[in-house]
Amino acid sequence: MKSLKISILIFAVVSFSQCKTMKLTETAPFKITGATYHNWVGGQPGVSGTNLIFGVDNDTNITFKKIYFQNKVVEGEIENRNGKKYFIANFSTSAKRVLVTKTTTYINGGIVMDDKKNKPKIKRETIPFNLKPNEAVISYVSGTKTFYYKVSKIKKTDTIYYP
What we know:
Layout: H1 2-20, E1 24-25, E2 31-41, E3 48-57, E4 62-69, E5 72-75, E6 77-81, E7 84-92, E8 98-100, E9 105-107, E10 110-113, E11 136-142, E12 145-151, E13 155-156, E14 160-161
Parallel strand pairs: 1-12, 2-13, 2-14
Antiparallel strand pairs: 2-3, 3-7, 4-5, 4-11, 6-7, 8-9, 9-10, 11-12
């Protein structure tokens, strides 16, 4: 009976651990023509972030989804600039603004709780990849399947200071 419990436990651990791993593809159906990132600082105290920009070519029949970078994940968006296509992500590192009213707490404009007894819940997605500071993973959908492609040697450019 004890060996049966151990077998079930081992099976469960292996099953759950495989759900967390996401396999990276060696090649992608698109071409990265350039990859840079820069930090930015806003004119108000505590307002800052990082912009990550990928130049992309040959991205037909795929949909870009998320970018994993420096222990953060955000939805990216496609922009066309001067006839070229870019996949861009903005990672905000701004301090959270908390506004408390009698019954509702708002963090950065979103309702977090509706009772003083509750504590604010900020959902943070964990990163399933072990990345260096100059590496990112792009998730994209081709057909009905999601793929993950790692981009290395992303060049850091100068910080931009906004007034």
